[in-house]
């Protein structure tokens, strides 16, 4: 652990102005981002006597090796920059709300020519309007099923829409009245888009207009003695009312608000939010967060509002999806008129100004004191308390078992420390074809999928035709991985360690830049260009961080191959083991007998999870490459030859064999193909032993190519059984 005094900035170097600061560890990775009204006062608070700091702050400052800062003009700008950096660098000591992307939304793809209503999860797409989130996807489908009777817009996939248009017959929904069938021209695209706009307006809270319209049409049809149409309008009205019953009225009509509540203890906090639009609860979601930094309830509220509303792109996408009010009123990323919180955020005035800027009009961030809004806040708080209790019940055992697993591995493998970062490698091939390898990463016993890597093995074993030799593949992959680590993460001989003072100014590991000169991700002094963080992008290099333990899928031969690679590179600070599938034995390099862990061992279970994940990742990549190779043509690699001209060539000649036998003049007869492209095509198709001369390439012995090909042995793709002659 580093001594904070070793990288403390000199007195007077830190400006007394608003800004954002970053702490980096010895590898140059950002571990904490914060903002301050006065950078000088805030940073000084971190460099007092360590014993006086909160335990979490102690851990952070002793893990860090340098600090840097960026000044900004206003506190609102510091709020925006802090959120951007937290999202970009994912610092381990910042509060992060993890579960917001798993909730389903009702989405209307207004950006398509024929808008579609569907259930969507994950990142928001431009030109799509979102409503929700909902707790369950079936709740969305029930609502859509009711509303399609009144707003019969498209709900099918692009493939179904295209096939229906080709055959001139709609799908089942078109026959039962739950789709207006734009695919076969029953309704124009303009009228269908108007239906989609009405659907979106209803979901955004403008419900009374459609109820009144259906009631008027029902009365009008009854007055005209058109009782069948009146009955249909009556049923449509009933469907609308049943859909409205699914969202309870909790606040006076036309109230748009997001209601937040927290339940917390010293280690964790649970958050719940109800999205109220038009007085009705249109969505609900929740998070549980670990308090990895010393933060108050007001600070938690500020971080929460940053995450929920901080992604300006989500707000822009919602607005791009259609006329701002409806989209903004429905999208959870958009800002409503009122934000109700249990306590005011730490910098209430700046947060309010920031939210008002995002919305484009005034936003009221306040704590409700009485009435319906206070009652709703208490209901949300009860939900948060129940969520925290449920999370602690589920998570308590998980934390214990993960800690036990790491401790068991440390003891069984004789490691100095628990293996907090574990990397596992596996090789996948099919009879020597498409040889690939995978690298998966587990940190603190959990998968870190952003660090996963995959390799296409292309070493000597593949070129020699012995691609089924797993040991050679393991050796190659380990060399490639740790060469990159040494190149990206290891400083050159004689360079100062990360966090040491530069020769010219002696400010230990500190860096200050003005707002106009700030470079996103710029590394601090003492973190050289060879550091794990790319000085240009500010992001970690791909193989910069070493593992504490490397696991290979296999027994003693695979472990020996990996150990040989590490020895060749001089890597001595990384532990190595292998897990053999048959008896689940753990092999160590140089050992005659394996380590046998008990079947009920949590350490063995963790190794199995890591190994199985590496196998899944490797075989997925292998299948992708195998599928692409089955549909790959020799013309794909010809420079300047696109899909249209490839299709034209094959249509003209019928096969690669006939194209290979053609002359330059014959190839030039294909529309769009000139002499240069024709020569490039024939050069690419020419046999390796042939020197093209502007005409049809011929074998060395002067025979016609078709005669030589008839005598040549057939080549077979062993994965598919396909003849590879052409």
Keywords:
726 residues; alpha/beta; 7-stranded mixed β-sheet; 23 helices; 41% helix; 16% strand
The computed structural class is alpha/beta
Whole-angstrom Rg? 32 Å
Rounded mean pLDDT is 76
- N-to-C CA distance: 63 Å
> What level of helicity do the residues show?
40-55%
Q: How many β strands by DSSP?
A: 19
Task: Give structural notes.
The structure is a single chain. With 726 residues, this protein is α/β, with parallel strands linked by helices. It has 23 helices and 19 strands. Helix content is 41%, strand content 16%. Strands 12, 13, 14, 15, 17, 18 and 19 form a seven-stranded mixed beta sheet that branches. Strands 9-8-7-10-11 form a five-stranded mixed beta sheet. Strands 2-1-3-16 form a four-stranded mixed beta sheet. A hairpin with a 2-residue loop joins strand 13 (433-443) and strand 14 (446-447). The longest helix is centred in the middle third of the chain and has 43 residues, at 371-413. The chain is globular, with a radius of gyration of 32 Å.
């Amino acid at each position: 652990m580093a001594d904070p005094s070793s990288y403390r900035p000199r007195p007077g170097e830190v400006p007394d102005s608003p800004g954002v600061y970053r702490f980096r560890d010895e590898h140059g990775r950002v571990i904490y981002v914060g903002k301050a009204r006065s950078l000088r006062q805030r940073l000084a608070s971190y460099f007092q006597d360590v014993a006086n700091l909160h335990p979490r702050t102690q851990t952070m400052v002793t893990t860090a090796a340098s600090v840097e800062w960026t000044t900004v003009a206003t506190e609102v700008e510091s709020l925006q920059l802090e959120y951007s950096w937290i999202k970009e660098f994912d610092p381990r000591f910042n509060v992060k709300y993890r579960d917001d992307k798993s909730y389903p939304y009702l989405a209307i793809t207004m950006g398509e020519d024929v808008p579609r209503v569907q259930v969507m999860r994950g990142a928001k797409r431009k030109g799509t309007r979102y409503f929700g989130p909902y707790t369950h996807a079936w709740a969305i489908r029930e609502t859509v099923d009711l509303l399609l009777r009144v707003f019969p817009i498209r709900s099918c996939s692009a493939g179904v829409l295209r096939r229906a248009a080709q055959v001139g017959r709609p799908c089942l929904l078109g026959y039962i009245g739950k789709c207006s069938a734009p695919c076969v021209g029953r309704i124009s695209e303009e009228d269908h888009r108007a239906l989609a706009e009405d659907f979106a307006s209803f979901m955004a809270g403008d419900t009374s207009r459609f109820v009144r319209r259906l009631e008027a049409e029902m009365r009008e049809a009854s007055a005209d003695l058109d009782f069948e149409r009146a009955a249909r309008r009556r049923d449509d009205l009933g469907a609308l009312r049943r859909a409205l019953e699914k969202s309870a009225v909790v606040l006076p009509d036309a109230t748009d608000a997001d209601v937040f509540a927290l339940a917390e203890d010293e280690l964790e906090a649970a958050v719940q939010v109800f999205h109220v639009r038009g007085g009705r609860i249109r969505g609900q979601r929740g998070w549980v967060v670990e308090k990895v930094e010393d933060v108050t309830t007001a600070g938690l509220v500020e971080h929460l509002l940053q995450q929920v509303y901080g992604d300006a792109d989500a707000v822009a996408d919602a607005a791009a999806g259609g006329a701002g009010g409806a989209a903004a009123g429905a999208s959870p990323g958009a800002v409503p008129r009122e934000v109700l919180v249990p306590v005011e955020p730490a910098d209430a005035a700046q947060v309010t100004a920031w939210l008002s800027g995002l919305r484009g009009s005034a936003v009221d961030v306040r704590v409700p004191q009485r009435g319906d809004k206070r009652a709703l806040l208490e209901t949300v708080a009860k939900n948060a308390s129940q969520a925290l209790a449920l999370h602690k019940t589920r998570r308590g055992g998980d934390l214990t078992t993960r800690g036990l697993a790491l401790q068991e591995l440390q003891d069984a493998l004789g490691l100095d420390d628990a293996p907090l970062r574990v990397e596992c490698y596996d090789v996948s091939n099919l009879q020597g074809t498409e040889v690939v390898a995978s690298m998966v990463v587990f940190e603190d016993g959990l998968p870190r999928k952003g660090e996963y890597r995959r390799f296409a093995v292309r070493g000597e074993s593949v070129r020699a035709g012995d691609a089924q030799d797993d040991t050679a593949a393991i050796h190659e992959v380990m060399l490639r991985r740790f060469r990159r680590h040494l190149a990206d993460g290891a400083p050159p001989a004689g360079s100062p360690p990360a966090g040491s003072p530069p020769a010219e100014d002696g400010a230990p590991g500190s860096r200050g830049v003005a707002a106009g000169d700030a470079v996103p991700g710029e590394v601090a002094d003492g973190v050289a260009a060879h550091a794990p963080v790319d000085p240009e992008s500010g992001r970690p290099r791909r193989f910069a961080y070493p593992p504490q333990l490397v696991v290979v899928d296999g027994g003693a031969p695979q472990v020996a191959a990996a150990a040989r690679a590490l020895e060749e590179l001089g890597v001595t600070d990384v532990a190595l083991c292998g897990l053999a599938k048959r008896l689940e034995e753990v092999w160590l390099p140089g050992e005659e007998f394996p380590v046998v862990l008990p079947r009920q061992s949590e350490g063995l279970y963790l190794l199995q999870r890591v190994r199985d994940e590496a196998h899944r990742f490797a075989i997925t990549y292998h299948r992708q490459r195998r599928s692409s190779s089955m549909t790959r043509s020799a013309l794909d690699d010809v420079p300047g030859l696109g899909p249209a001209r490839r299709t034209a060539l094959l249509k003209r000649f019928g096969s690669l064999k006939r194209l290979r036998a053609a002359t330059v003049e014959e190839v030039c007869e294909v529309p769009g193909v000139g002499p240069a492209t024709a020569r490039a095509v024939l050069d690419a198709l020419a046999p390796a032993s042939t020197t093209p001369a502007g005409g049809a390439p011929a074998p060395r012995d002067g025979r016609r190519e078709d005669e030589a090909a008839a005598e040549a042995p057939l080549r077979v793709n062993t994965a598919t059984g396909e003849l590879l002659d052409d």
